[in-house]
Amino acid sequence: MSPKAFASAVIVGAVLLLASQGLYVVNETERAIKLKFREIVDADIQPGLHWKVPFIETVKLFDARVLTLDSSPARFLTAGKKYVIVDAFAKWRIKDVRAYYQATSGNRMEASKLLSNLMNKGLRDEIAARTMHDVVSGERDELMTKLTGLLNTETQSELGIEVLDVRVKAIDLPDDLSESVYQRMSAEREREAREHRSQGRELAEGIQADADRQKTVIVAEAYRDAERTRGEGDAEASRIYNAAFSKDPEFYAFTRSLTAYTETFNQNDVILLKPDSEFFRYLKDPSGN
User: Which intervals hold domain Band (predicted)?
Assistant: First the structure.
């Protein structure tokens, strides 16, 4: 190879080396920071193709997408001096690259650790100001909204991180407290069951008493109406009998005597009467004389 060709090759190689060391690309999903001898010279690098001084300046790239911090379940004390185990997570992203790099040296694990500590501190303060009922159901949404706002303000100033949301995945009770709560809930439900049964028995007795009273009144009124109807029927029958037998009193006396004979002589009783008794009137003489 001639000296001229060799020189050209060296120059081309040097240019390629400088280009490979000096050119860099920032994607849409990334944030970048440029350092010169470990000092920040540019913390607002836009996405695209950029240039840096080879071997003097360095560029660090960070994920600019929304990231998830899934913290480990932690134990917190409520206002009622009851412990709860809270499992929460947070959604966050880099807001200020300069502050983020200064606080964490660009280490995502370090950022997650610091954010987790701040989130646990916020959870501890908010839960300590609320009862267990409020934490579990009553003010849970309000707690998460307030915690997100407070945590976002603190992390932006200290870590350069924007906290978008904080949510609780689960709230559990410690094993010893769970058993105590279960026993208390069971006793409370048993008390309510006894109260409902007592009210039911009281209501049933009232209904039974009212039904018995109505039954007595209905039976009494029915008996009264029946007796009235029977009396009216007997009176009507007597009137008809009187009207019928008044036409022939002798025939009436005769039929009454026959009825008396029929009802008397079919019995096994012994009857002692005088032979000239009026009872034997038609036995002695069919004409009754």
Answer: 21-185
